[in-house]
Design brief:
Two copies of one chain form a homodimer.
Chain A: H1 9-28, E1 33-35, H2 42-46, H3 79-89, E2 96-98, H4 103-117, E3 132-137, H5 141-149, E4 153-160, E5 163-164, H6 166-175, E6 179-184, H7 198-205, E7 215-219, H8 239-245, E8 252-257, E9 269-272, H9 275-288, H10 294-304, H11 307-336, E10 342-344, E11 353-357, H12 362-371, E12 374-376, E13 393-396, H13 403-427
Parallel strand pairs in A: 1-12, 3-4, 3-6, 6-7, 7-8
Antiparallel strand pairs in A: 2-9, 4-5, 8-9, 10-11, 11-13
Helix pairs in contact in A: 1-13, 4-5, 7-8, 11-13, 12-13
Amino acid sequence: MKAYKDMTREELQAEKKALDAQFEEVKAKKLKLDMSRGKPSIQQLELSNEMMDVLNSDSYFLDETGTDCRNYGILAGIPEAKRLMGAMSEVDPDNMIIYGTSSLNIMFDTVARCYTHGVCGSTPWGKLDKVKFLCPVPGYDRHFRVTEFFGIEMINIPMTPEGPDMDLVEKYVNNDAAVKGIWCVPKYSNPQGYSYSDETVRRFANLKPAAEDFRIFWDNAYSIHHLYDEDNQDVILELLSECEKAGNPDLVYKFISTSKVTFPGSGLAALAASKRNLEDILKYMTAQTIGHDKLNQLRHVRFFGNFANMQEHMKKHAEILRPKFEAVLETLERELGGLEIAEWTKPRGGYFISFDSLEGCAKAIVAKCDEAGVKMTPAGATYPYGKDPQDSNIRIAPSYPTLAELKKAAEVFVLSVKLVSVEKYLAG
Amino acid sequence: MKAYKDMTREELQAEKKALDAQFEEVKAKKLKLDMSRGKPSIQQLELSNEMMDVLNSDSYFLDETGTDCRNYGILAGIPEAKRLMGAMSEVDPDNMIIYGTSSLNIMFDTVARCYTHGVCGSTPWGKLDKVKFLCPVPGYDRHFRVTEFFGIEMINIPMTPEGPDMDLVEKYVNNDAAVKGIWCVPKYSNPQGYSYSDETVRRFANLKPAAEDFRIFWDNAYSIHHLYDEDNQDVILELLSECEKAGNPDLVYKFISTSKVTFPGSGLAALAASKRNLEDILKYMTAQTIGHDKLNQLRHVRFFGNFANMQEHMKKHAEILRPKFEAVLETLERELGGLEIAEWTKPRGGYFISFDSLEGCAKAIVAKCDEAGVKMTPAGATYPYGKDPQDSNIRIAPSYPTLAELKKAAEVFVLSVKLVSVEKYLAG
């Protein structure tokens, strides 16, 4: 294919005519497809259906220490759930707190706690004139929503395939005491699918924050969400132990959940941190609740038995997800390769592909898709305040549609990209 | 029995000698009993065991609108859960939000939201110099803990068998704009088991708060938790509709849960309020979470089918609880009747009996019980800041021990009351 930038006006006009005709055909099909959110498909949900059989009326409802999981009590989670989620989080069970069903909710709660009660005795963030967070971009819209909601100023930090630009991170964190946090998805990042390099993780562990109440918000959402077998999986260093080694044990809050392992909304969510951080958090939790759902903890623990089985379970997810990612990537390569109008990532795990169009085209592409019945994540959503300065990033979520639907949706997407791009060249 | 106050010094000394001997005997038994918390007994938990059979791997997991309860989504709860909890809360399903598993957590969350984001656009409470809450006393320790945790000043309001002293409530609420809330357990109150009279509820609905962001925190924790049949149940007016009638629709947040209907920690918790309040809350929730556990909602809805069945289910709880309450009351009457050293309530529902000793004796009685192996709620816990100005109130929780254990515990309790009282008279 000839790159659009090298086409003559006549060639561009011919291309546009052909694309317009194709687009009208597609529109006539009145499709209703969705590549907007990182939702597991029905086929994936069914992998965990048997978790619903684990507890029944004849079950033994006590945890391993004899606590009745049907009754009040146990603020931080039953020991066997701490072990399971600790293994998933690669930390000691004593560094875990098991919450309810949503890690996003733990992150919100963590920001809210810092806002009202500070961090290990520091001034509550809500009492300060200015609080700032660093936001690697593109990133996860719901992270940005939380910090925006608490009036926290967000600073864009460019992402690279190795992780956030660490020169910039160090410059801000080590010099500006108003910088209190950074949002990170360190493995198979949302939306790129990048995994932080060892050097990046070590530089995080060795930060020398100007603010004593600075914390790294480490959302390890896709820690075991590989698409390929062991030889082709990303591995990252474990940050809590790196922080300990660096003499900074309190620097990080780690978040994790089984939302995309068992059932979104009905999984287990957990936090990992240093003992000092956990004590600080437990003081808050003592006023906040009597305890989280221990029956759901028991259900998860008994369904998996151990972490090795959870990893085996993830292979079944991979078998469903891998062909979907590959179908989208194949379509992108086949239809857009050589046109020089876009770039995209090729993740080995996680839930997304990050797509960059020509500058100023993302909103128009998403609108075009919508016109043809394909719903995409709103352009801009991957940036704080919904503002992508280049208007070029689009997050593609291949998980939810069936493979057949996804192939159709991907065709609509590339067609929209080509149309908007050719129009840009014709207009410019 | 002769009242202690009418005894001569010699009679008191003889009584003390006899009681001391009894106490030594009891201590020798090395009992380990607990009347401290309102926990359902194992027998009660087993009433809901079959709820664990409701969902299994072959279940139909869609709610009535076709939403897959295994996946993300539905912020405010599935429609059938809103209907069930709406019936329990005596309001329209459209006035409901279903949360996670703990109503205490909703109350904490509500205070936290008012603190960080205000009420329907008002100044966040955290930005104000002074925020006050009214606290009917004796009351629920965990309510007081929440407001204390947010630095809210708590003002004691005496309880009567008709509800809080409404003259005082009106005086504070209608004149002091720093008064932002009041904690209420309107039915079978914690710890007295009192139910608010119709006049009390109407006076609440007709408050004219000085503060536009004043709200009534209406914790209807024991709405269907009767001990007796229909002829001997308490009924209270429904506050949300009374507020509407009074032209004050936004005055109340109602809280409810099935913690003591199904499983504490794994039940459903919900909030009821006006549409305007719900919209305000939903804005917050949109940043806070993607949605709560819909499988647990489905499990509850399918287990009960409808509210009438939930009420039937409560009769089974009553059959277990009633003999326990009656055993404690019988012991109190038999051993303390006529001594004029104590008063106590005789509830027709709820989870507690409120006991008042002679002034200055409560802490000593609880300590005596502890010495003999019977754990009681700490004296003072029923007051803000843990400070009972009379040091006389003790909350008795008869639910958790078996009937046989409870009878033993009640004997230890009355013995401790007598001993401490006789010592008071001898010292005075």
